[in-house]
Amino acid sequence: MKVDGRHYRTVWLARDGWSVDIIDQTRLPHAFEIATLRSLEEAATAIRTMMVRGAPLIGATAAYGICLAVRDDPSDATLDRAHSLLAETRPTAINLKWALDDMRTRLRACEPSARRAVAYGRAAEICDADVAGNREIGRHGLEIIGAIAAAKADGAPVNILTHCNAGWLATVDWGTATAPIYRAHDDGIPVHVWVDETRPRNQGASLTAFELGHHGVAHTVVADNVGGHLMQHGQVDLCIVGTDRTTASGDVANKIGTYLKALAAADNNVPFYVALPSPTIDWSVRDGIAEIPIEQRDGAEVASISGRTEDGRIETVQLVPDRTPVANYAFDVTPARLITALITDRGSCPASAEGLAALFPER
Ligand code: MRU
Fold this sequence. Notes:
Elements: E1 2-3, E2 6-7, E3 11-13, E4 20-23, E5 34-37, H1 40-48, H2 55-72, H3 76-87, H4 94-108, H5 112-150, E6 158-162, H6 178-186, E7 191-196, H7 203-215, E8 218-222, H8 227-232, E9 238-241, E10 245-247, E11 252-255, H9 258-267, E12 272-276, E13 281-282, H10 288-291, H11 300-303, E14 304-308, E15 314-318, E16 331-334, E17 341-344, E18 347-349, H12 353-359
Parallel strand pairs: 6-7, 6-9, 7-8, 9-12, 10-13, 12-17
Antiparallel strand pairs: 1-2, 3-4, 4-5, 10-11, 11-16, 14-15, 17-18
Helix pairs in contact: 1-2, 2-3, 2-4, 2-5, 3-4, 4-5, 5-6
Bound molecules: 5-S-methyl-1-O-phosphono-5-thio-D-ribulose (MRU).
5-S-methyl-1-O-phosphono-5-thio-D-ribulose (MRU) is lined by residues 53-56, 93, 164, 166, 170-171, 176, 203, 242-244, 254-255, 330.
């Protein structure tokens, strides 16, 4: 997608041909800065500290983390160490494990002397496949938005509510939840996006608003608790969110608060869609609530907030009384029964074991 007229992906090989450039998302929306990763440890830190985040981008960056590790030392021991270090960075997004397992299997199958070239080649393929898959999600989701637009009188905009950032910043390009939105906008369908601010880290307010703004898509940021009210008053035509892990039976783990939006959508007959590329499906898990590990992060993310002061400084301020106990659950699980459909790179399907099996018969 474009930033100030220039096309960017979120992760790419630097000019030297081996180090890895990323957009430092901890600096957005107030500064657009490129950071360069030169070692396995730097890749792990970038994922852990959320310089890069979003399930597909975490997977793509981890693939490049493996490249940086085997560039230094292509032995089995280093490969295994890199796999474990990166796997521990974020527990919920299954794309991380998928990319790491894929890289390790391929590299194990070749001689250490060949591993560097194979690793860089495969990491590039993972990135390209993410872009292609998200483009397909956009095509399938466009049919849904187009049908709602066609049923509206006098070209009124289609109002879409999204949570967190499942946009191009969360993937290599296009985004998952945002791909249908960008496609609809580019096709001339009027859309307006309600952007949940997404406390505690505000990915909606800082990242989704940033990218929709740069693409010229009409949007409004709302506090996290507003969605139910908007739905009760007919101001949301559909919800589209992303996911960090979808079970074989269609349960969906996504950013904390997604479940409450799905409950409100069900109570108000608002269709609730989840967009995902195939590597986000964890075929080994069926019961999302019981089986998906939910990341808990530092309470400081809840107890404080960062922003830009009038004179341009970025400051972090404390929100709670001194020594207040704080819990920071990063994700929740939305049961399949609350989901209207999954929008995948292979098409849309009911959020159910049967629905997914029909799209992925090889599983
Ligand atoms: O904690 P984050 O910012 O990595 O969480 C991101 C999300 O919850 C996204 O919705 C999800 O990863 C899907 S991204 C296409």
